Amino acid sequence: VHKHSGDLHPDTADLIERVAQAVEQQGVEAWFSLQTEELLGKDAEHYEKVTDTLDVWFDSGVSHACVLEQREQLRSPADLYLEGSDQHRGWFQSSLMTSTAMYGRAPYREVLTHGFTVDAQGRKMSKSMGNVLQPQKVMKNLGADIIRLWVAGTDYRGEMNVSDEILKRTADAYRRIRNTTRYLLSNLHGFDPAQNLLAADEMLPLDRWAVDCAAKLQQEIVAAYNEYQFHLIYHKIQNFCINEMGGFYLDVTKDRQYTCQADSAARRSTQTAMYHIAEALLRWLSPILSFTADEAWRHLPGERSESVFLETWYEELFELTGDDVISAGQWRLIMAARSAVGKELELLRKEGGIGSSLDAEVTLYCDAELHAALAQLHDELRFVLITSQAKLLSDAPDDARDTELEGLKVMVTASQQPKCERCWHHVEDVGSDEAHPDLCGRCITNVDGEGEQRKYA
Questions:
Q1: Contacts of 375 (CB under 8 A, 6+ apart)
Q2: CATH architecture of 168-310
Q3: What is each CA distance from 261 to 293, 393, 447, 450, in whole angstroms?
Q4: Are 426 and 174 within 8 A, CB to CB?
């Protein structure tokens, strides 16, 4: 620069090229050993060589100008800068300073920082300590989606613990999600949405509730994605698969799927719900379990795009309305009652009184609120409890058993009725038809008649 004015030499561009060639041949020390006269000749007496060291973060710090500003397909400022927490004084800072100096604004709309990967005890990964986990080895043994799920399930705002045991638990969670997906797909066999999809108002209340759960969950998931709260997405989807789906809905609808006529409204109703849920679920999973979602996408029935990654959020979910005969709150009470009854059934099974829950008959004594909810199911309460008979009363005798649910007492007994060989329910009318001596009246209707009519579950 000029000794008095501080201006650059008029041939600066050429000088930079010459210095760059020298550095390429001799290393960075070439600049410091270079005499001014070698570059400027007689002009050397008017200029001085600057030996200040440029910030090492300058190159990456001006990437917003060198990358975003130079490419029409990109836009500036960037939507997001993503790096580790050590970059608060590094890339984030140098980018902010240079962009503010050049444009008077930040080069990014949002900044996301994450912690570092440590072992189960919170120690830094070190080869000398032998606690380093190789991603390639994990991918080979467990698959890439397990790593992706572990990353998504960890709160990245702090240090991220990882170990073989943590990855094993992640693999268990992955299997739950994958198995739920597989179950939904397997029960859509023979279902063509163009021909068999029911309108929302034609679906049974239980199926409408299942779609309602998915609709409300999707709102939470989209909000979590927008806020980069990936660990919330992981836990919400896992809980949905465990509780609402595996622990209740998929279990209750097995009887309807396997005993009702193939093209009956009762069976098509649950298939419609499963179709809606699968369509939404694969979209929720695709940013995290990318390989699993893309593989499952090819097996969903109906016309669709080539890949789930070409889709947006599913828009055909719906919520319950005030016109529904069973409200979302009443379904929560029904689920709680079913869980409480299930524990009493398990006690009877351990005592040797029954083999499965269908070997039992149960009488429920409820308070007014619970009674009102369970009464909405009428005779179909037994399908929800998965027992051969279910009675609903108010006044409990002295020998009724208390349950974990306040306001609910039960009496559980082994059924003395004959067992239907088709649906496994113990029903009085088994053998009433000579043509089908091993079937109950309901199954005979499904096999030889017009098929049973379900109204609620």
A1: 392
A2: Orthogonal Bundle (1.10)
A3: 31, 32, 7, 9
A4: no
Q: How is 308-362 classified by DSSP, letter by letter?
A: GGG-----------TT-SS-HHHHHHHHHHHHHHHHHHHHHHHTTS-SSGGGEEE
> What residues does 84 pair with on adjacent strands?
114
Q: How far apart are CA 224 and CA 178, in angstroms?
A: 21
Amino acid code (one letter) for 116: F
**Kind of pairing, strands 401-402 and 408-414?**
antiparallel
Q: Where are the domains of the chain?
A: 58-114, 168-310, 330-416
User: Which CATH architecture best describes the domain 330-416?
Assistant: 2-Layer Sandwich (3.30)
- What integer is the mean pLDDT of 256-276? 97
> pTM, whole model, 2 decimals?
0.85
Q: Which two tokens stand for residue 427?
A: 């029903």
Q: How long is the chain?
A: 457
Q: Euclidean distance between the first and final Cα of the chain, in Å?
A: 84
Query: Tens digits of per-residue pLDDT, 366-382?
Result: 999 999 999 999 999 99
Cβ atoms within 10 Å, residue 233: 23
